[in-house]
């Protein structure tokens, strides 16, 4: 991301100033203040932008200019923005990516790059035409454990990969969160196969150096939502938790008033836009699935069986690679249960095991890797995006372009089409990434 600013610092603006934006704003204002500068914020909610500015000042950084979302283009010119960071609601990403590219700016966007095929095609076409760059902030690639998997596979440790078996579990705290707010509507998030699995499908594309060819999916809303909630006996009669006595003892509820950060970012901001961050996960209106099975065939010939569960008792994942010289198995337990009393009682661990043919299995040493900030990935990602390392050689090819963003979406978007038709979808026909 080159800059011609006289002070040598790249000028960033953030659009969409919710929880995720805080991580980027803090990284720019603190560790990377020598090379990066946050100059403006844009959002539909002025109160949330003001909260970010208070946090910046508390970090010792200056408050920055704030703009209503509809003045995004004017902001780019007036604030001489070099690079736009897109951390808004998924459905709106394309609008800001395309506007920034058209204005000659580079973009870093949160995942998913967008939520449907027409929007995805528009981003690809605009990037190709303008010659500007889109980086998709796939932080999971920067998790040292995931880097290790990539290294081992690229080194041929288990030979050629024939197939992948991948299971991802979101627990009844984190998984439930997608059913409390805007993600619960497919039009906003693309559903979990897009919003969440874009990370996982990107990892597999990157690990295997492959693109999805054929995708088949089955899924449903099994635990959350009005009908399932009543069927399983979990449903309570309220719309949002705040000021609802029925939510007081609901283990699926989130209580905004008890958390200072949730209170100021959401509860105290909702008078402006009616954004309720604490909807009842069993209230009507959920249009996404919580249990998803996907079968993929890649252009390398490898296949993947994948399962996403958003109502698990523990959080983490298992991914197994079957190769022509053995098998690689990664197990990550982020937390072994959800404690309603104290998250401090929850435990996690991770194992990476190589099982060669005709030899005993051996563990790959991944001890000492952080579990916070998405396994230490957020800090490593922001160092590359904002720090002096940003022009360094990236031998693992972790930086993700708009084409990688599109390739990761392709599996989820094809899977969504398969859910609708009940038939396998030839993903390669949906989007030309050749
Ligand atoms: N990579 C990761 O690990 C990770 C983690 C969390 C979130 N995310 C991504 O970050 C993004 C934001 O997620 P979040 O959890 O911060 O959500 P959030 O709900 O906390 O914030 C979303 C923000 O977008 C704003 N917004 C809504 N409509 C807008 C519009 N039309 N124009 C501009 N702004 C608008 C909202 O006012 C809000 O401030 C999502 O795309 C999500 O997928 C990524």
Question: TL;DR of this structure?
Answer:
The chain is an alpha/beta fold. Helices cover 32% and strands 23% of the residues.
Describe the structure.
The protein is an alpha/beta fold. The chain folds into three domains: 10-136, NAD(P)-binding Rossmann-like Domain (Rossmann fold, 3-Layer(aba) Sandwich); 140-224 and 286-429, Dihydrodipicolinate Reductase, domain 2; 226-273, no CATH class. Helix content is 32%, strand content 23%. It is built from 16 helices and 16 strands. The strands form two sheets. It has a nine-stranded mixed beta sheet with strand order 14-13-12-11-7-10-9-8-16. The protein has a seven-stranded mixed beta sheet with strand order 3-2-1-4-5-6-15, sandwiched between helices. A hairpin with a 4-residue loop joins strand 9 and strand 10. The model has no long low-confidence stretch (mean pLDDT 95). The protein binds nicotinamide-adenine-dinucleotide (NAD). Nicotinamide-adenine-dinucleotide binds next to helix 1.
Show the helix and strand layout.
Blueprint: E1 10-15, H1 19-29, E2 36-43, H2 46-58, E3 65-68, H3 72-78, E4 83-86, H4 93-102, E5 106-109, H5 117-130, E6 134-136, H6 144-154, E7 161-171, H7 174-177, H8 186-189, H9 192-195, H10 197-208, E8 212-220, H11 226-232, H12 260-265, H13 270-273, E9 291-298, E10 303-312, E11 315-323, E12 326-335, E13 349-356, E14 362-363, H14 372-375, H15 377-386, E15 400-401, H16 402-421, E16 425-426
Parallel strand pairs: 1-2, 1-4, 2-3, 4-5, 5-6, 7-10
Antiparallel strand pairs: 6-15, 7-11, 8-9, 8-16, 9-10, 11-12, 12-13, 13-14
Nicotinamide-adenine-dinucleotide binds at residues 15-20, 43-45, 48, 69, 87-90, 92, 110-111, 137, 139, 195, 374.
């Amino acid at each position: 991301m080159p800059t011609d600013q006289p002070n040598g610092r790249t000028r960033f603006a953030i659009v969409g100033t919710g929880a995720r934006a805080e991580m980027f704003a803090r990284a720019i204002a603190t560790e990377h203040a020598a090379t990066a500068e946050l100059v403006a914020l844009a959002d539909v909610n002025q109160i949330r932008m003001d909260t970010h500015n208070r946090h910046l000042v508390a970090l010792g950084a200056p408050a920055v200019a704030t703009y209503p979302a509809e003045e995004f283009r004017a902001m780019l010119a007036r604030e001489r923005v070099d690079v736009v960071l897109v951390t808004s609601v998924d459905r709106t990403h394309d609008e800001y990516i395309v506007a920034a590219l058209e204005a000659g700016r580079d973009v870093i966007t949160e995942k998913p790059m967008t939520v449907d095929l027409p929007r995805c095609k528009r981003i690809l076409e605009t990037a190709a035409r303008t010659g500007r760059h889109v980086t998709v902030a796939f932080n999971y690639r920067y998790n040292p454990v995931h880097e290790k998997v990539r290294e081992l596979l690229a080194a041929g440790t288990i030979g050629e990969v024939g197939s992948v078996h991948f299971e991802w579990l979101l627990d009844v705290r984190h998984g439930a969160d997608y059913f409390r707010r805007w993600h619960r509507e497919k039009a906003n998030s693309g559903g979990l196969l897009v919003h969440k699995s874009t990370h996982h499908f990107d990892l597999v594309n990157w690990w295997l150096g492959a693109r999805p060819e054929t995708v088949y999916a089955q899924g449903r809303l099994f635990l959350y939502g009005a009908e399932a909630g009543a069927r399983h006996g979990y449903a309570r009669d309220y719309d949002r938790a705040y000021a609802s006595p029925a939510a007081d003892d609901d283990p699926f509820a989130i209580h905004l008033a008890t958390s200072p950060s949730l209170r100021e970012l959401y509860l105290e901001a909702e008078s402006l836009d009616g954004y309720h961050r604490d909807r009842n996960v069993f209230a009507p209106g959920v249009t996404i699935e919580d249990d998803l099975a996907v079968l993929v065939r890649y252009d390398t010939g490898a296949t993947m069986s994948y399962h996403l569960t958003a109502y698990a008792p523990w959080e983490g994942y298992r991914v197994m690679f079957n190769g022509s010289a053995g098998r690689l198995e990664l197990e990550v337990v982020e937390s072994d249960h959800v404690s309603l009393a104290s998250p401090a009682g929850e435990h996690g661990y991770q194992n990476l095991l190589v099982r060669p043919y005709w030899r005993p299995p051996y563990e790959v040493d991944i001890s000492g890797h952080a579990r916070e900030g998405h396994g230490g990935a957020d800090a490593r990602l922001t160092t590359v995006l904002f720090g002096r390392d940003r022009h360094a050689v990236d031998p693992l090819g972790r930086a993700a372009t708009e084409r990688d963003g599109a390739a990761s979406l392709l599996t989820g978007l094809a899977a969504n089409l398969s859910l609708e038709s009940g038939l396998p979808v030839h993903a390669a026909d949906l989007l030309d990434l050749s």
